Amino acid sequence: MPEINVSALGLDYAAKTAIDDISFTAREGEFLTLLGPSGCGKTTTLMSIAGLVQPTRGSITCGADVLFDSQRSIDRPPERRNCGVVFQSYAIWPHMSVADNVAYPLRLRKVGKAEIAKRVQEALAMVELAALAERYPHQLSGGQQQRVALARAITYGPGVLLLDEPLSNLDAKLREQARIWLKEFQTSVGLTTIFVTHDQDEALALSDRVIVMNDGHIEQVGTPEEIYQRPASPFVASFLGSANLLAGTVLGTAGGLTQVRLQDSGQTVSVGADSLAGDVLVMIRPEDVELFSDTNAADHATLQGTLASRTFVGSSYRYIIDCGGQKLSVASRERWEPGPVRLRFAPERARLFPHASATAVPTLTEELSHA
């Protein structure tokens, strides 16, 4: 299957830039996800690839085929882009049977009746709906309708599959089941797939790589593990999962660790060495913070706090800890009662982001010698 290459893509409206200088490659056979909040430009990017939106500038290629190039005035129409598209609303015809819905793009392409029957049967078998070929959409569940839309998108053998939040209309339990099925399906057919979602769990569960978008720009590209464990910005850290972002000031480095004094509480924490100085944000995931009760164990590896609230979420408890005015979210399988607690985390699990300006980090010895 071909790869999709998007280069310097931009789209300007009268008073707003919807996407600006978007560049990425969806590799052959890859499941690539565009992730971001509403209005970030992810669906606009997807619809530009499909040919349903015309960008202002940039280029899009599918293998050796040029789909769009603003400088060469190339804009291939949607029906000639060989892209299978599944929309958020599924857009299946209510007056047509399942088989007729799946056959529709083949009839548009004037494929012979015998070939249509064969391809429809194959597509429905792939999405496990062969027994429901004669049913109508109102006789199907939401998950079955979603699979009809997917069968219709693949029945004519597209080179790439474009999915615009196809699971968003499903309930939570069915959505989880659909994720598993969709990933297994995509892997089995080997289609290059670009998937749009605002749901971080979907992005982590389905993707080979994730592109995090914000306000028309790309914030970070990487595997689910890379962007979750090593986010490139406070936005990525906060959008993908939960993150504590604590304002502080770098004191210096010692023993391979950066010492940071937190602004509100004045307490000091150790973070894995980084090349920042001045005002920073310390990022730590709630699940990486450990609670313990020895309130006399005062050192730079721990923080003193007060357990302010507790919420049970099934697999764990979620706590809000007040550390001298700074609130930390903590996830733990243990039940703790309100009152004084201490917190600690492994320095290598935390990250630093510049809060204002950043320069090279002085050593702690240098910092103290100027005090």
UniProtKB/TrEMBL annotation:
Keywords: ATP-binding, Nucleotide-binding, Transport. It is an enzyme of class 7 (translocase). Pfam families: ABC_tran (PF00005), TOBE_2 (PF08402). GO terms for cellular component: ATP-binding cassette (ABC) transporter complex. Its EC number is 7.6.2.9. InterPro entries: AAA+_ATPase, ABC_SmlMolc_Importer, ABC_transporter-like_ATP-bd, ABC_transporter-like_CS, Mo/tungstate-bd_C_term_dom, P-loop_NTPase, Transp-assoc_OB_typ2. Residues 1-240 form the ABC transporter domain. GO terms for molecular function: ABC-type quaternary ammonium compound transporting activity; ATP binding; ATP hydrolysis activity. The keyword ATP-binding applies. This is ABC-type quaternary amine transporter. It comes from Thermomonospora echinospora.
